[in-house]
Amino acid sequence: MSDALKFPPGIAYIDGDYRAMSEAKISVLDWGFLRSDATYDVVHVWQRRFFRLDKHLDRFSNSVARLHMTLPFDRDGLTDVLMECVRRSGLDDAYVEMICTRGVSPIFSRDPRDAVNTFIAFAIPFGWVANEEQRARGLNLSISDIPRIPPQSVDPTVKNYHWLDFIAGLYGAYESDAENVVLVDLDGNITEGPGFNLFAVKDGRAVTPESGVLEGITRTTALELCRELNVEAVTGTLTAAAVRGADEVFITSTAGGIMPVSKIDGHPIGDGEVGPVTQRLTALYWEKHSDPAWSTPID
Ligand SMILES: *Cc1c(COP(=O)(O)O)cnc(C)c1O
User: Fold this and answer.
1) pTM score > 0.85 for this model?
2) Whether the Cβ atoms of residue 118 and residue 101 lie closer than 8 Å to each other
């Protein structure tokens, strides 16, 4: 396979330089790779505007600080690098990732304090959790009985690459012909899926899990948009039974926004059609992408 097929178009900032994605490589001794000792964030660009960039920068800075890492730039410097990746990529719609890893210890010690943190950013074409057909008809989602890594072990509000629970869940879902998966917590309540949060709507009221999840920017956005649409929306405990018995279910992610779920483990949600609350939220979500209060132009 040629590099052109293996790598998407796009530009990475790595080792202080801007490079083609095929040239964006890290050391195998980087703890980001050896130990999943890393945090990251993903913001998207739609029609050459970042969507809610400030919220992503806040979350990323908090995550980096929580993990005792440091970034080589201040907030403005970080913004400049992300802008430059998008500019050089020439992409109008992009998936823009920023990563900070523990890095490499120059003396190969086992003490994380010896490591020199690595910062990488890249802009690649925008990608979706659900493809066009799935967005039109709604996903068939499986509720796995695999518990998400408990928040007492790994703080889920620090966006991380501890995904082996999600990956196991995905293989389980594929075995039962579902298209994606959501994991539970140790009490069997719903948490989140690989890169997305979940909402269930019942009798006009939307609920999303309160804890044990990454506080998604799209989740926050959906809560705000519900308010604008006069739909009651709360964070709380969401049981698997409540999801199965909901009128509507949707997922939220930077990778695709608000996306409908029409089946859980093959059984239709409500009448099995994409519901009215999901449709109104999705339309308003995309409208907000040109609102200067919620978006930043690539200059
Ligand atoms: C990124 C992610 C989400 C969604 O967050 P957004 O900020 O809306 O993209 C949800 N759960 C997990 C585990 C994630 O990694």
Assistant:
1) yes
2) yes
